[in-house]
Amino acid sequence: MCNLYKVLIVEDNDIIREDIEHLIDWTKHGYKLVTGAKNGEEGLAMFHRYNPDIVITDIKMPVMSGLEMIDQIRKTGSHAQFILLTAYEEFEYAKKALYLDVHSYVLKHEVDDEILLCELEKQKAALNKERNMGRITKSMSLKEYLTRGDIVSQGVDNFFRWHGRSIVMVVELGEIPGNGLTAYKRLKETTEDMLSEYEFESVDIGAREYVIFLKVPESLSEARSRDFVRAFVKKQQDAFSKILEVNTAVGIGPYIFHTDKILDGYKVAKKILRQKVFYKGDCVLDIQDIPPGHGKAEEVRELIKATKQNISGMNREVLHKQLLALFTDLLVQYKSVELLDECVHELIYTLANVNNQNGLESLHDRLDNIILCSRSGNVYELVELYNEAIGKLEAALMPQYSKKIRDIIKYIHEHYQEEVNLSDLSRKLDISVIYISQLFKREVGMNFSSYLTKVRMDKAVELLETGNYKVYEVSEMVGYQTIQYFSKMFKKETGKMPSDFGRSIWRSKDEKRNVL
Questions:
Q1: 197-219: per-residue pLDDT in tens?
Q2: What is the topology classification, in CATH, of domain 160-289?
Q3: Which CATH architecture group holds 398-516?
Q4: 16: part of which helix (H) or strand (E)?
Q5: What residues does each domain of the chain span?
Q6: What crossing angle do the helices spanning 422-429 and 403-415 adopt, rounded to 10°?
Q7: I need a surface site. Which of 93, 159, 219, 255 has the fewest CB within 10 A?
Q8: How far from the centroid of its chain's Cα atoms is residue 203's Cα?
Q9: If DSSP states are collapsed to H, E and C, what string results for 56-101?
Q10: Which of 465, 461, 471, 470 is nearest to 503 (CA)?
Q11: By the 8 A CB rule, do 33 and 27 touch?
């Protein structure tokens, strides 16, 4: 259902007001009546309470006139549209409304359903035009303010369509399948309908980051306010999942009572959102999810030290266990972003140092991916990226092999997920199949197919132990076309079935301490 335009009727004559209220089927034509008022003062109070889109008002009323009320409303920066109810003898008053940018007049004793609908549709069209232009301008200004901190020329008081308490949240999307721009357009077209009961403003900061400001009714208690916000977030995540088919992480920041606190609130929400690195899938985070301290920081630093030593010694089997214990156990347990950053940079420095000391091909791209993942991914993905970087480094650290064999081993590590065979390699390297087969067996100590199987199974074990993938997904990821053949080779190579492997988080603490 589309958003209904809220209409407020302000008229001191009860009969005329009730006649107008019953003149048309408001909902059928896309409108919603809010509680009416008998004078300008009441009308102003109802306006602040309901924030209507269109106000139908008499001019001459007791306590406060319609023109005085319009003047007060205009001073709030509202873009509401007005329809004046006039009598013949009041037409001179109506001319004064031109100074208040009001151009719609209806003679109250001649108004009928056709005249009323005609004026309402004019105001609706004016609202849509002004909102579209205003939203574009406000969105651009708000985006500039959030990204640069500049106070834009229009000022920050006009960013929202409402006054009072708001809450800021930052939303980060997962990878958007297909055309991200097309998906975003679909999202904009349908989200407002799915969340029509809420008042909010959203700004896209990047391809996958959105900042949302939600109006929270000040009449709600703290507990009910929290429920209100969580209900909005849940519906929003459902919308993202339905429209874009992606997971979302949401960082809920503080309440904002004054617009000059927008930037501070955004920064707090961003800090909260960084905690998403310790979660998989959808997550909703608030200030309570930031730990008070580093917990047992020394325990983490001891494991970092041990992991660095094994990187230098290139003990890959132990390294994989240490990475799982470090990222998916200890860091998930303590949820300290500061410790995570320390860990990421310490291990990156060690990898780069080993790489440079041996004069190997640069790991620059892979290390950049790790840093990026620590900001926008999660610890489970970080383990995979470290394993890939270590695998590439390990493949390069083979001085005992001839250059031809190093090239073959490097090719296997980079293409194990594809169909790899000696015939293709012989053509690429311009060497006979028989010569490659004999040379490989002599230098490596096993035949080509056995080595390829070992690489695939080592990778399969790494993937299965992260807990991120199902067996059939791992089968495809390591180059097997059927899960049956994959399971057969896996059992032959490891002595276990793929389903026997679970995440290291379920292992006992004593076993995890043994990796030190």
A1: 888 888 888 778 889 999 999 89
A2: Alpha-Beta Plaits (3.30.70)
A3: Orthogonal Bundle (1.10)
A4: helix 14-21
A5: 5-129, 160-289, 291-389, 398-516
A6: 130
A7: 219
A8: 12
A9: EEECCCCCCCHHHHHHHHHHCCCCCEEEEEECHHHHHHHHHHHHHC
A10: 465
A11: no
In sequence order, what are the residues at sequence separation of 6 or more whose Cβ sits closer than 8 angstroms to the Cβ of residue 454?
446, 493
Q: What is the pLDDT of residues 125-174, one digit of tens each?
A: 888 877 665 565 666 777 888 887 765 444 445 677 777 889 999 998 87
What are the backbone angles phi and psi of residue 206, rounded to the nearest 5°? -150, -170
Buried b (16+ CB within 10 A) or exposed e, 411-440: bbbeebeeebebeebbeeeeeeeeebeebb
| Alpha carbons 470 and 453: distance in angstroms, whole number | 20
Q: To which CATH superfamily is domain 5-129 assigned?
A: Response regulator (3.40.50.2300)
Instruction: Tally the residues of the chain.
Output: 516
**Cα–Cα distance between 472 and 226 in angstroms, integer?**
41
Read off the tokens for 423. Answer: 């015939």
Q: Give residue 89's pLDDT band: very low, low, confident or very high (50, 70, 90).
A: low
- Dihedral sign, CA of 68, 71, 75, 76? positive
Encoded tokens for 279 = 């979660």
pTM > 0.70: no
177: nearest Cα among 245, 103, 86, 128: 245
Handedness of CA 333, 335, 336, 339 (dihedral sign): positive
